[in-house]
């Protein structure tokens, strides 16, 4: 393999270029091999490793008649060239990692005529019987902070992580989602890749000096968006505001509910305390204006389970944590807080109580399942993984 050229498919943000360069570095560090990475706009050479949907004839032939499923990659030899393809950019990156571990590690072997395929998709997660509403809260990670935290070479771009978001919608089929740190770039990506006859958004557009806005996503097949929008905090309003929506279930009962998301300050306690008070007061006011219908609150609260600020919100808003009710019923899945760099399998985890993502609702609701989402590579969507709750309330 010494002297091979690693050829990556040209795409909008250079993610596959980084994958190719990663392979080259691994070959040098582990095996002492000298490989170079080039775009598929360069002329073909005899010895190549092809990454992604390149314009090479060998890539097209290797994919011929093959339909790849979600998060699935495929690699093998085609006419003397190594080929790695996937159903998307994320899966191609998984294939590159597998190529490194399989053929470039100290115990690595030579690739012969076999074809290696693997899917990271764990399957759809059905909702428990009796569920009225499946709620997800997810911080999508503002790319500015990703670059600061993980460096230019270490972060996974928004447009790549959007593939994980799409997988989450397909696998979990939520009714409503509260999304935080949705930069203008995220707005455009979601509009291009998700917004459709099936999925809608309550989003503000660009906000000057924003850290990344909060938005709502909803399933048009199961709920109707009645009205809603954004409510600015009375102070420090350039940060993420409250996003609210009045929705109606499409289950024939005509039941309505309020749904919210926001993002509290992570480094200024006095601001976070103000946000806690204003958020809870806003929920109380809107609940009263709408005849006392159920209200469900999500956020990146930036405060741990049963912290002073957490308990203040619960008491002031007169709500319950879906996790607590699910735990009483033995219906929790993955009681952990998973965090770290997307794409890093060695990322950390901590006790559930250290997590900052919570889903609150009426004290008399029923919760059939509460889950920290780890399946289907949800750990690659953000620096802390989403949470999901399946809830019901009396008709």
Question: Summarize this, please?
Answer:
This protein has 395 residues and is of the alpha/beta class. The protein contains 9 helices and 21 strands.
Q: What would you say this structure looks like, in words?
A:
The protein folds into two domains: 115 residues, Chitobiase/beta-hexosaminidase domain 2-like (Chitobiase, domain 2), CATH 3.30.379.10; 260 residues, Deoxyribonuclease I, Chain A, CATH 3.60.10. The mean pLDDT is 91. The chain is α/β, with parallel strands linked by helices and 395 residues long. The protein contains nine helices and 21 strands. Strand 4 and strand 5 form a beta hairpin. 28% of the residues lie in helices and 29% in strands. Strands 9-10-8-7-21-20-16 form a seven-stranded mixed sheet. Strands 2-1-3-5-4-6 form a six-stranded mixed sheet. The protein has a six-stranded mixed sheet with strand order 11-12-13-14-19-15.
Radius of gyration: 23 Å
Number of helices: 9
Q: Mind telling me the CATH class of the largest domain?
A: Alpha Beta
Overall, the morphology is elongated
Biggest sheet, strands in spatial order? 9-10-8-7-21-20-16
Proportion of helical residues: 25-40%
Tell me about the largest β-sheet: 7 strands, mixed
Q: Which regions contain 5 or more consecutive residues with pLDDT less than 50?
A: none
Domain tally = 2
How do the SSEs run, as a string of H and E? EHEEHEEHEEHHEHEEEEEHEHEHEEEEEE
């Amino acid at each position: 393999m010494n002297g091979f050229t690693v050829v990556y498919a040209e795409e909008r943000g250079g993610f596959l270029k980084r994958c190719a360069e990663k392979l080259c570095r691994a070959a040098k560090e582990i095996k002492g091999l000298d490989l170079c990475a080039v775009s598929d706009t360069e002329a073909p050479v005899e010895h190549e490793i092809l990454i992604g949907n390149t314009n090479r004839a060998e890539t097209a032939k290797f994919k011929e008649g093959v339909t790849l499923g979600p998060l699935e990659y495929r690699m093998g030899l085609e006419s003397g060239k190594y080929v790695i393809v996937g159903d998307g950019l994320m899966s191609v990156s998984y294939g590159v990692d597998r190529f490194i571990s399989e053929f470039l590690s100290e115990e690595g072997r030579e690739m012969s005529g076999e074809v290696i395929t693997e899917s990271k998709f764990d399957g759809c997660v059905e909702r428990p019987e009796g569920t009225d509403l499946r709620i997800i809260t997810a911080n999508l990670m503002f790319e500015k902070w990703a670059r600061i935290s993980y460096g230019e070479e270490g972060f996974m771009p928004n447009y790549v992580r959007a593939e994980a978001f799409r997988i989450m919608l397909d696998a979990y089929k939520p009714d409503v989602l509260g999304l935080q740190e949705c930069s203008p770039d995220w707005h455009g990506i979601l509009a291009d890749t998700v917004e459709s006859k099936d999925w809608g958004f309550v989003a503000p557009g660009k906000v000057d000096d924003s850290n990344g806005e909060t938005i709502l996503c909803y399933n048009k097949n199961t709920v109707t968006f009645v009205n809603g929008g954004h409510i600015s905090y009375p102070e420090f309003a350039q940060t993420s505001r409250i996003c609210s929506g009045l929705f109606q279930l499409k289950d024939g009962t005509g039941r309505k509910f309020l749904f919210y998301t926001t993002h509290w300050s992570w480094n200024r306690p006095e601001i976070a305390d103000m946000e806690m008070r204003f958020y809870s007061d806003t929920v109380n006011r809107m609940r009263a204006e709408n005849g006392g219908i159920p209200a469900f609150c999500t956020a990146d609260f930036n405060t741990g389970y049963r912290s002073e600020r957490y308990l203040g919100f619960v008491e002031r808003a007169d709500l319950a944590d879906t996790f607590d009710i699910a735990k009483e019923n033995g219906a929790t899945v993955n009681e952990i807080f998973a965090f770290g760099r997307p794409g890093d399998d060695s990322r950390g985890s901590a006790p559930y109580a250290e997590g900052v993502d919570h889903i609150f609702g009426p004290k008399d609701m029923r919760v059939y399942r509460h889950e920290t989402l780890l399946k289907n590579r949800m750990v690659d969507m953000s620096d802390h993984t989403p949470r999901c709750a399946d809830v019901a309330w009396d008709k």
